[in-house]
Amino acid sequence: MNETPTHGPIVVLSGGLSHERDVSLRSGRRVAQALRDQGRDVVESDIGADLIELLRSLDNPVAFPLLHGGVGEDGGLQQVLSLLDVPYVGSEPSACRRSFNKAVGGPLIERAGLSRPRMAALPHDMFRELGAQAIMAALGERLGFPLIVKPARGGSALGCSKVDAPAGLAAAMVQAYSYGELAVVEEFIEGTEVAVTVVELDGEQIALPAVEIRPNSGIYDYTARYTAGETRFIVPATLGATAAKACADMAIGAHRVFGLRDLSRADIIVRPDGTPVFIETNVAPGMTETSLMPQAVEAAGYDFGLLCAQLVDNAWARHVTSA
Amino acid sequence: MRQSGAVSLPEPSRRDTRLDPYIDAYAERTHGLTVSAVRALFAVANRPEVVSLAGGMPNIADLPREALGRAVDRLIAERGTQAMQYGSGQGEPFMREKIVEVMAEEQIHAHADDIVVSCGSQQALDLVTRVFCDPGDVVLAEGPSYVGALGTFRAYQCQIVHVAMDDAGIDPVALRGALVSLKAAGKRVKFLYTIPNFQNPTGVTQTVERRRAIIEVAKEHDLLIIEDNPYGLLTLDAEPLPALRSMDADNVIYLGSFSKIFAPGYRVGWALAPHAVREKLVLTQEAATLCPPVFSQFAIATYLDEFDWRAQITIYRDMYRERRDAMLQGLTEHMLPGSTWTHPDGGFFVWVTLPEGLDSQAMLPRAVTARVAYTPGTAFYADGLGSRNMRLSFCFPTPERIYEGTRRLGEVLEQELEMHRTFGLGDEPTRHLDLSTGPAPDIS
Known about the structure:
Shape of chain B: globular
Distance between the termini of chain B: 68 Å
Structural class of chain A: alpha+beta
Helix content of chain A: 25-40%
Radius of gyration of chain B: 24 Å
Strand content of chain A: 15-25%
Number of strands of chain B: 15
Helix content of chain B: 25-40%
Strand content of chain B: 5-15%
Number of helices of chain B: 13
Largest sheet of chain B: 8 strands, mixed
Oligomer: heterodimer
Order of helices and strands of chain A: EHEHEHHHEHHEEHEEEEHEHEEHH
Radius of gyration of chain A: 20 Å
Strand order of the largest sheet of chain B: 3-10-9-8-7-4-5-6
């Protein structure tokens, strides 16, 4: 913990051209400031065409990717960092892909014995070629209503709809496809919404206390996520001890199944009977003032800046060891 | 950092928070102030890869910046102790004299005593609304209207009632009808807010006949008119039309601005108001800011004194005309059949109406992915209208980028339409305002 860092500047990567640019910039600013408060040398980069030049111009940089959705979480950015031999906080490209691609990750989750909603991930071409009405009818029969429709490459609930009846499915699909070419349709799970952050410290995977999410409007949409006051957060969640442990085990289980590294955040819904259902894992969790991971970090008694600094040190140590 | 390093964490004490300790202390008028997904998407529009047809930023690249810099240097050296001091709540007398000169360009004959300088005309509108409106009072505005004005009216908890308009401006018959029915319903109508020239967001200009008719209806019903005229001198095809204030000095509060004819960063605008109102505006201004930006007033007065500001407006007109033409050309070539748009004679904006079924707000993420941005029409209505509309601004990007933006927009519309066809959408009628009957004329 107290060793003098031997790496060069920490490059906090955020922004970019994703629909979550604004959230990403806010996450980046918060992490950058927290690292500076720890006395670390930080460069903030709104990623674009000059990123590679920037990384090559620095001595021994360590990257801290905070791009949400898209290239930030599908392994694309991590692949570029690996190519440049720049160590970075977070998971390797293949692990990101397993987590991000539900068609690949879903069976892994099931094989590990973790409960998840019934779902289908479908490109929009499929609807055009095979007939949208027939596919939507099949989705309704298979998954039932209500169901959740969301873009596959996205986050912050952008383009996400809860559909209560068949009549609303087409509009929800069009909305999801306005964010990308792949959409996910999944069974709606009634229950308590919680998020469990996993961090790796000193070689151990630690599940932080579950954060329970209670949006004032009943829907944890973009406004509820990023407007202070619009959502009530309870940490640790008001789960019984058994359910709380099941959630922690599920988050760590998903982290391991996907082969994730350093940090992840599992979104889970706990059914009224206390059974957790795995929704998804984020490899670049939000770090804004209203985000879930910083609240879990604080509740666990960690210092946010110190935790970020240790994750950077871990990334650098891996790099040195593998060199 | 936690000291123990143990894997199993002790159960911490429970924290129950909404992350805002003041959540129950805010005034009622702030309750709607939340972040939105649409606003978040605009964050992408600021990137250089994106052709942003969304914002209304003037293009001030053609200003003589070096000469302006020297003039400001002299100002600081010779009059800095005055220019950087507090000033009059009403605005500096020399500034108000200059504003009289500027307004004369639009046939407004005014006295400097009746002018209140403000921090942009946006603040003048805020002051006027603060002076006149109690919660629940009705403000009439064109439908659609300037989003910043709607925000001000909402902040004072006004009820916004839109008045129908067409390609000649506000419909006087609709205005009269609204006044009659609102009064019958016991509502207090405080004023009509209107942008007669190159209206934001439609680009429509009220004809002289309409102006007369609107003034007539206002007189019949003792209705105060707030005339907001930021773009009036940026006429691209003809001479400026007479301002409403020039036709009725007693019943019109006129709002002006240097943001479009000089530069917005100085934040200097003004209100020209009847004497009694002006007194209240000055006292309100003093309570709000003590005085409008003094240094900016000195700098602008220096500019008006030492530079040929009328010639600069001509330069602006030529520059914006080229951009406007690029946009109309691009729309003609790239818009979906069934789309229509306005043909503004000045200002910054074109108002597009999409084919039936398309929703401009819903397809904004697709547009952002395609690296083009616009403002969805719903932003300009207080009542949910405008889903088939979008505002395109031609003020800031180069003509080449504007043309490219319309090309990208055309592709986005085709993709969106295909998606609607795939899923069997597109038959649902949506509420919108179509101000144009066909594609742009041949402007080549």
